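FAQ: What does the model actually see?

It sees only this:
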Amino acid sequence: MTTITLTEARAHLADWLAADTAVSKKQSYSINNRQLTKADASLISEKITFWRREVVAQEAAARGAKSPGIVTATFKR
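And it is asked to produce this:
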């Protein structure tokens, strides 16, 4: 498995955000020899979500934060 650096994750996020901007203006956009158009808006959204989570996770790791887990709450009446 290839490890992606925080710098690379930020660059990917920036690319996908730029693609979203271009497509929202009814333009097409190219990333890695793939032509994206308005029809690919859901793919762009998925990629933005993925890379945003990756950036947040890596920034947290860089601060020494532990991985987020599942937390349950118990409420008393």
